[in-house]
Amino acid sequence: MLVLHYTGMKSAEEALERLCDPAAKVSAHYVVEESGAVWSLVPEERRAWHAGVASWRGAADINARSIGIELVNPGHEFGYRAFPAEQMRALMALARDICGRRRVPADNVVGHADVAPLRKQDPGELFGWRALAQHGVGIWPDEQATRPGAWIMEFGDRNDAVRDMQRRFAAYGYGLAPTGVFDDATFATVKAFQRHFRPRLVDGLADAETQGRLDDLLTQVGRRLG
Question: What is the CATH number of domain 2-134?
Fold first, then answer.
């Protein structure tokens, strides 16, 4: 797996200092600065403590099975902003190299929010997931896809349609149980999905467009795995 993060700190210097501090108990394999400079902090064959409590495709120990890349960005707390072109170019080159060498499946290129939606938002809705996929890293849905006959599902709904949607999110990789209740975990998962695959509108509503993009991704994964 490849897990992408933002540093969520005020400066690159502050982020690097924390990531290199053993007392902080947090680390990443790589850091990419806004200038495009790349720092290698932890050898890829060693575990880095970047994901925390997380899950993807039924696996919980994400740190043991992933490469973590931190992108310098102040994050939502300190003035979230777009990721500069220099930073994205450096990331694309690094990520292509990692995915090629380690044969990372496209649907295993994820954000911290994807593997820990109740806790994290990064790298967020301003990150260029679509551009990354166009350069051969990750996956992107058909932007015209919608789910025929779908109605909007929202927080508090309880029905079989919610359960079916939860199962589809889980089939793609999200750690979501099919409870049939549009609860906090479901709301957070929908928002994480939208930040990644429908960034123009992150509202937590499971509308026909959101569900359609999920269906398209499942179809793409099914073709690859089939």
Answer: 3.40.80.10
